[in-house]
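Predict both folds.
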Amino acid sequence: MNQKLKQSTEWKATGPILIGVIALFILVGVLGVWSVQARISGAVIASGMIQVESKRQVLEHLQGGVVEDLLVKDGDIVSAGDVVLRFDDKKLQSELAIIEGQLFELLARKSRLQAERDGLSILPAPEFLLAEAAKDLAVQALIDGQQRLFEARADTLTQSSEQIGEQIKQSINQITGAKAQLSALQTQNVLINSELEAAESLFEKGLSPASRVSELKREQARLAGEIGKLTASVAQLRGKIAALKIEQIALTTRLREEAISSLRDLQFQEVDLVQRRLSTLETLSRTELRAPVSGVIYDSQVFALQSVISPAEPIMYIIPQDQPMIVSARVEPIDIDQTYIGQNASLRFAAFDQRMTPEVLGQVTKISADVLTDQTSGIAYYEIEIIPKEGEMHKLNGQILLPGMPVEAFIKTEDRSPLNYLAKPLTDYFTRAFRGS
């Protein structure tokens, strides 16, 4: 009986120990299997802020100027294309009026010279000039003035040509008269020659006095002189006619040459005036500052009329509205090897109550090509962009997100076992230790 009591006592002492050892082995086994088979998701933690796909737009002006009208203030909502500010354009309008006056006068003069060059009856004014003339009586007056000048010069040319034509007719008539006289003299010369032959024959026979023969010879010589004089006169008149015809042709030629020369000079002036006009019109088109995108006016630097704006100086900003939201976050260089485009991420908005606001799922869409450095702290980082997945923003229950709000991003990495998490620090340590030795 004592032996049975002793065995019972030993069992009571070793039983719990055995059960504990078995439980320990089971626990170790379960933990071992769990540490190998289980998978725990890792994450790269990145801090960032909310941005919109189109970042804030700065409004500035190339030339600057004096503010004539300010139409918005901070907080106002504007649509793309709305005028937010006007500059004083009086000086530009005055410059444009001077340039256009010179240009329109030049174009009207050019039309008149082209008509003179080409022998036209009306001015070939360009469509642009005619369109301006339809709107402005002063431009029409320029065209009318050049038309009258063209007609006056054409009349002068016609009159000069007609005068030369009359001189040619007179010379032709003189030639006709001279030819008639020449014909009569030639007839007289034939008769004198016949009488002279008869007188010489009678003189040789002693039937006619010598004085008669001498008289006929003198008359023959006179007629020969008259005939020569008239022949020379006809030749001179013909030369005069040729010269007059050349002069008549030269009138038109000279007018065209003058027109061509003047057109050549006007060409350079026209190019200069056209360029100056286009430049002034372009500057005038920028006297109205318009919103490039729809959004909210922010940080306006203009508070009163007649303020002077310097060229390329920021005037105000527009925060775009109704644009897709993105999260711009910074990843430490040591974690960039675990980050890639298309990677899933969870977004937590620090400005909201974390108990009431669920996490929003997103996806990495952009990673900077190189490391960046914060100019203030000197910390190096990679910039990434995360876009919330479709339908995820509804989880916020209408809470308003504004650009600049802080966001904490948890970028999901590959799943690893618990054993891998526990062993990695040791393996990394020994790897460095062995390399160091």
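Second protein follows, with its predicted structure tokens after the sequence.
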Amino acid sequence: MKSFGDLPNFFHYVRGRLWMEDVSLEGLAHRFGTPLYVYSEAAILSQIRRFEAAFHGLPHLFCYALKANPSGRLCRLISSRGLGADIVSGGEMERALRSGFPASRMIFSGVGKTESELDWAVRRRLLFINVESEEELRRLEGVAKRLKKTADISVRVNPDIDPRTHRHITTGLAVNKFGVPPAAARDLFRRAAKQKHLRPVAIQCHLGSQIREVKPYLSALRQLLSLARSLAAEGIPLRWLDIGGGMGVAEGEKGELNPESLAAAIAPEMGDYPLRLILEPGRALVAGSGALLMKVLYRKASAGGGPLRGTPGTRLRRGRDGRRFVIVDAGMNDFARPSLYDAHHPIVPAVLPRGGPKFRADVVGPICESGDFVAKDRLLPWPAPGDVWAVLMAGAYGFSMSSQYNSRPRAAEVLVSGHEAALIRRRETLKDLFALER
């Protein structure tokens, strides 16, 4: 098993078959079909306990980022542990409420909140609304005044800090659309403090995703603390300091940013300052809990790609050497991260092969684009059609980013708890593709 690297917690091989907790993943693939998302309840609860233990010495609130995985069953599990919710749309608001998150533990972020969404948020008295522009603040003023209610707000600060992650998932640089510079944030706080229907209660930033270093968080934290202290001196005291989420998980040869290291670095900075800390973990809580099961359909080689059987070839180069392909039934419509971000996810067989050679191959899906791939140039045991493979670390931004592209129904989802496996979202049918058309 060492040749496949370390498995996430609660995944293990039993007599050559891959299990999640006490359930065979090959058995789930046969029972529910593929592509299939499978999640471990124990893995999610373990991560929640780990975060709570790491930040035990700091007054804090974790607000789960629903965007990572909005499955109702998973959200109910997470809300039952006392976490709040980070939401970014009206749909996520409704999901959060239906999943048991109280409005008093919800924070509403996003640069493009509509008036109807702001109306919803003010009526339900969320913990706070993250304001990201002057025009949004003016619109929120109008909504709160019309409703004759007071809206608790935060201002999202853009600290212009490079989190050293993929350019598509940075959110705290000056070139990004999110938040406002510190000087502009100060002005928005001052304006809000003068309004009868607005109450500044928090300051927030979010640097991006898949951040693997503590340093960017500390740089941002120091900016927020400095601004919060100066606002308090002006008579605008705040209650919450929100440093967002984005804690990186293992991907390829890149390790995680563990919560223990982050908490140890943050605690001395916070000291005894009377602000309660908010973090918005999403991926960090659920990524390792999930696997995408997929079935091998075909094998092929392009010109110069080498034999499909026999002695393994050398590492294939792009260009004239050609490539080998393993074609699976999961595509970029099911799992977009490799195509969007060149994300590296481990792929392991549901049943270990009995010896035999390994080949370097591209693992590709059925979608009609060359950008449709699960892995590139990956060393894997050469499969037979019908073999089941598992894409690991797929519990976040998997199903939540899936689509019906190429008119393909979306995958089913299953939650494993001990020796039980429950279907928590059925597979879409062809009829579902046309259900909303008129």
